[in-house]
């Protein structure tokens, strides 16, 4: 199943994704006239920020809905619907940037190889993704609620890849990158409003729940809320255990 993204819900309730990405742009430090590839660009907010600094950006995303929304918001930026595993470009890029997207790509070696090919010699790959331990509480709640509701949990539908720093570093090095920096850090992430966890589940858990009816999904959402309330809901606010893997790698 390919994820059916709701670009409107993404922009309305999950704009923290690109807000956190701003510090990753600082790390990338885009220069005037550099050509930058944004892998998993979503609705284009970070691509836009990079163009404001004078870079030219090409944004790709596997979701046609996201690309349509990005193109509507930022008509002067070039966007294209493209799977990262199938990326091919006529010209090389000075840098590849990716925020909160690589953990959706379950063929990391193939993706890293495509990024390597897309870069100029000496070009940099600067990215942040979910790493080891990311959203462990939500994963636990989804599994437990399905068990409690006697609904089948299908391992194969698990849509994410959350590697350790050591694992991803060795993949980058195997592809030919020199890893200048890689770090796994905890970033507790507040969700918007009392319905924050519900909105998160509606937005992001559809692959895992794809075999369930709409009614069964609603029961799973409600059970997850019950299970997580004691640990993740404080002062009217959901806070989720995000772990980020952030790195800078250079094509040798
Ligand atoms: C993340 O950014 O870590 C993430 C977002 C949605 C689903 C899973 C992980």
What's the layout of helices and strands?
Layout (H helix, E strand, L loop, with lengths): L6 H7 L2 H13 L6 E5 L5 H8 L3 E6 L2 H10 L4 E4 L11 E7 L8 H11 E12 L5 H13 L16 H11 L1 E10 L2 E2 L5 H9 L9 H19 E2 L2 E4 L2 E9 L1
Parallel strand pairs: 1-2, 1-4, 2-3, 4-5
Antiparallel strand pairs: 5-10, 6-10, 7-9, 8-9
Bound molecules: benzoic acid.
Benzoic acid (BEZ) binds next to loops.
Characterize the structure shown.
With about 250 residues, the chain is of the alpha/beta class. The chain has a single domain, classed as Rossmann fold (3-Layer(aba) Sandwich), CATH 3.40.50.150. Helix content is about 40%, strand content about 25%. Helix 8 (about 195-205) packs across helix 9. The radius of gyration is 18 Å and the shape is globular. The protein starts with 6 loop residues before the first helix and ends with a strand. The mean pLDDT is about 95. The structure holds benzoic acid.
Brief summary of the model shown:
The chain is α/β, with parallel strands linked by helices and 252 residues long. 40% of the residues lie in helices and 24% in strands. The protein has one domain (7-251): Rossmann fold, CATH 3.40.50.150.
């Amino acid at each position: 199943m390919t994820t059916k993204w709701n670009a409107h819900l993404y922009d309305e309730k999950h704009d923290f994704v690109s807000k956190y990405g701003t510090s990753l742009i600082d790390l990338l430090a885009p220069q005037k006239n550099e050509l930058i590839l944004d892998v998993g660009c979503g609705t284009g907010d970070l691509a836009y920020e990079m163009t404001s600094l004078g870079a030219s950006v090409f944004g790709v995303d596997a979701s046609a809905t996201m690309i349509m929304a990005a193109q509507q918001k930022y008509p002067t930026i070039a966007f294209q619907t493209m799977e990262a595993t199938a990326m091919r470009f006529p010209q090389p890029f000075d840098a590849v940037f990716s925020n909160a997207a690589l953990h959706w790509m379950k063929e990391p070696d193939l993706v890293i190889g495509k990024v390597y090919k897309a870069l100029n010699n000496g070009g940099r790959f600067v990215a942040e993704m979910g790493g080891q331990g990311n959203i462990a509480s939500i994963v636990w709640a989804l599994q437990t609620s399905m068990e409690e509701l006697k609904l089948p949990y299908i391992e194969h539908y698990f849509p994410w890849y959350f590697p350790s720093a050591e694992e991803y570093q060795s993949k980058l090095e195997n592809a030919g990158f020199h890893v200048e920096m890689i770090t796994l850090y905890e970033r507790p992430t507040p969700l918007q409003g009392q319905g924050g966890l519900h909105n998160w589940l509606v937005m992001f858990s559809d692959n895992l729940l794809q075999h369930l009816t709409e009614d069964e999904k609603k029961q799973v959402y409600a059970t997850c809320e019950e299970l997580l309330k004691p640990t993740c809901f404080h002062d009217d606010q959901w806070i989720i255990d995000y772990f980020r893997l952030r790195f800078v790698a250079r094509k040798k």
